[in-house]
Amino acid sequence: MRNILMLIxxxxxxxxxxxxxxxxxxxxxxxxxxxxxxxxxxEKEAKIEELRKRQSSALKPEERLWLxxxxxDEYYVYNADSAMVYVNDNINISRELGRKDWxxxxxxxxxxxxxxxxLLGDAEDEIKSIDINNLNKDLMFQYYDSKIYLYSxxxxxxxxxxxxxxxxxxxxxxxxYEAQRYINTDHSSYYSFYAxxxxxxxRGVEGDSIKIxxxxxxxxxxxxxxxxxxxxxSLSVMYRNxxxxxxxxxxxxYSAIADIKICNRDIASLxxxxxxxxxxxxxxxxxxxxGYCLKSALLYxxxxxxxxxxxxMDKLRHAxxxxxxxxxxxxxTSLYTVSIMSFVLLVAIMFIYFQYRKxxxxxxxxxxxxxxxxxHLDELSEAQQMLAEVNKELSEVNEKLKVSNNQLQESNYxxxxxxxxxFSICSSYISKLDxxxxxxxxxxxxxxxxxxxxxxxxxxxVQSELKEFYHSFDAIFLxxxxxxxxxxxxxLRPEERVVLKEGELLNTELRIYALVRLGISxxxxxxxxxxxxxxTVYNNRLKTRNKAIIPKEEFAEKVRSLGKMxx
Length: 567
Description:
Blueprint: H1 2-13, H2 21-35, H3 37-53, H4 61-75, H5 80-97, H6 100-116, H7 120-128, H8 137-158, H9 162-179, H10 190-197, H11 205-220, H12 226-241, H13 245-261, H14 268-279, H15 283-299, H16 303-445, H17 449-457, H18 460-480, H19 484-490, H20 508-517, H21 523-530, H22 534-546, H23 555-559
Helix pairs in contact: 2-13, 3-4, 4-5, 5-6, 6-7, 6-8, 7-8, 8-9, 10-11, 10-12, 11-12, 12-13, 13-14, 14-15, 14-16, 15-16, 16-18, 21-22
């Protein structure tokens, strides 16, 4: 039901369209930039005001020409009438200085402004007056670019006359092929020019190469210059012609963002975008965009664009009227529905009122019963709480008793194992001492004094006995705690774990902590057991604690709980 209501609300607001989340995010960014358009205009006016402060009658002609050029750069897409003032002034200055090349350049700029403002006949007459013999390579490209721009506007202006429009667009295409001779990769318009040249064949080898390069340039740009706007628009047209609507809209948005930031009032990208949004049923946003375009076109002014904008605005106006009619119909239906629901609600309220009176009577008797029940529950809760506390104390005592029993059981088992082991060793040593005594006696009787001296001075027997003693200790310890080595290594960093040699049960490091596990923590006693110095035992224990993955102060206590006792 909730989903159905949401769908109805969306239908009423006219916001259902097939634009994915990323494009919606970009459109929101464009909305944000558009909301700041007054700020960009203020920044533009501030720059122009700074230039005005530099104007002076004492300026030399060349200085005035370059200052006029700076004014032109600020005005040529912002205010065509103001830009034209500085273009005409620079034409006169160029003639005064006898600079034919400068004059031709500014005549081409004049052609651009005439074309941009829709004075296409004047632009056509002006370009015919240009002497191409005095143009260098860069100006030759500007000459062809101006003619391309002019014929593009002528094609847009005749609009409904398809035959005449086709002839203009055909001438535009021919001029593009001629202009190729005068542009190289260093030119700022190189990629956008070739994008327009290959726009109808975006998937060819040349088209793919241009598209890749242009995409890289646009994606790395700050979208804050005229070149960024043109490059983005040219790329969007290539994607449009290969049927990629997502990228077509994406780069059209990029172009519009750049145009708004530079205060371009001859803004084609936003006009085209508003038409797309109309087709996606985003009428409100489309109307906002086309309104901005119309305001810009009137301020520029651009007569050709005003005509095109009017047709888009007419579509949006009809869409608004249709949507308003649908909303009025839906509103009437909603009003009827609300009226019926209000009547049903009134009947329901009356029914609830009578039921409520019955409920009040029942509630009084129920409250008394609940009071008595609550009293009994409180008493029962107190008894349960006392019982829980007793159970908790008993559980703690049982747990401590269980731990003590386990420790006692383990201690008894270890004692039993090691008492038998000690008795066995003592018996073995008594037998070995008796045999040793007999062997000395025999040698004394035989007069083998040298053999006796050799036998008593050698440490081989002691070392052998110690080795056997340690082996027996290791064996009985691992019999009691078979998992000790594995558990001990788990306390150490992986790269520091003890690796036993072949045939070894324990090594010195493990024997020290085996004795700790048995409850012998005194380094002096451990040293006596292992026949080494207490300092050696201390150093060994310190070194091992430094290898641990747990805090050093917890290491010895943790070792005392290692190894599951084997019974």
